[in-house]
Write a structure and sequence with these properties.
The strands form three sheets. Strands 8-7-9-10-11 form a five-stranded parallel beta sheet. The relative contact order is 0.11. The protein is globular, with a radius of gyration of 20 Å. It has two domains: 107 residues, no CATH class; 129 residues, 3-Layer(aba) Sandwich (Rossmann fold). The chain has 252 residues and is an alpha/beta fold. The two termini are 22 Å apart.
Length: 252
């Protein structure tokens, strides 16, 4: 249960439009629910503003459907990431109103009461088209967490004029997520151009010497641009959560 819903319940009790017992019934749902193969943290939305996100990789379709349905039943929305292709259709069928993003590999059900909108915009910048799956995961996650997410694609340093031509786009962002593989140099370049937080996401895109993302990870960790923070390889989700917390935390 999100804080917004709890606040709404308490407001209705205060103004007399909801009996105390009805509010207690809504609040008394167990904070954790065991399905045998998974234990769902239903109070995560209350603590952190967004319900538990389901990591789809290595789970069976049956497990994903069961977990997602139980989270969706609370009305707070649900996000499933890294959804295997064979699980997408069953999830869409089991979750009315759900949305499938084939590039991001996400399935999402929107909350009955939208989350509070964060102040400012998250800009997701990609070095190349091959980085789009990770970038889209970040954009979908940011949107689900109440943030406005814009995209700037295919502006890697091999054609740096493409990035420099979008200076106005960079300047209006409140947080920038840079997604890049191969040498991972784009994060340092962006970090040297802006004064807002930059979250770098190394991807496993590249030829052999990129070592499945180790090379861009090390490049980003050793960035000479101050203020660049780095998440794990291909972790678009983690970058978006960090960016969302920055923006929600800046609300007065």
């Amino acid at each position: 249960m999100r804080r917004e819903r709890v606040r709404d319940l308490l407001g209705k009790v205060a103004d007399g439009s909801m009996p105390i017992e009805s509010a207690l019934a809504s609040l008394s749902q167990e904070p954790a629910e065991s399905l045998g193969f998974a234990t769902i943290d239903h109070h995560r939305a209350l603590r952190q503003g967004f319900p538990e996100v389901v990591y789809g990789a290595a789970k069976t379709t049956e497990q994903l459907v069961a977990i997602a349905q139980r989270i969706a039943d609370r009305g707070d929305g649900v996000l499933v990431t890294r959804v295997p292709a064979e699980s997408a259709a069953p999830l869409l069928e089991a979750l009315p109103g759900s949305e499938w993003n084939a590039i991001a590999r996400t399935v999402r059900v929107r909350a009955t009461q939208p989350p509070a909108t964060a102040r400012g915009t998250i800009l997701v910048v990609t070095a190349g088209t091959s980085d789009l799956p990770v970038a889209e995961e970040a954009a979908v996650t940011a949107d689900a967490m109440g943030c406005v997410a814009e995209r700037l694609t295919d502006v890697g340093v091999a054609g740096i004029h493409r990035l420099l031509a979008n200076g106005a786009v960079l300047e209006r962002a409140a947080v920038i997520i840079v997604v890049a593989g191969m040498d991972g140099a784009l994060a340092s370049v962006v970090g040297g151009l802006v004064r807002v937080p930059v979250i770098a996401v190394p991807t496993s895109v590249g030829y052999g010497a990129s070592f499945s993302g180790i090379a861009p990870l090390l490049t980003m960790l050793n960035s000479c641009a101050a203020g660049v923070t780095v998440v794990n390889i291909d972790n678009g989700f983690g970058a978006a959560v960090a960016a969302a917390r920055i923006l929600h935390g800046s609300r007065s």
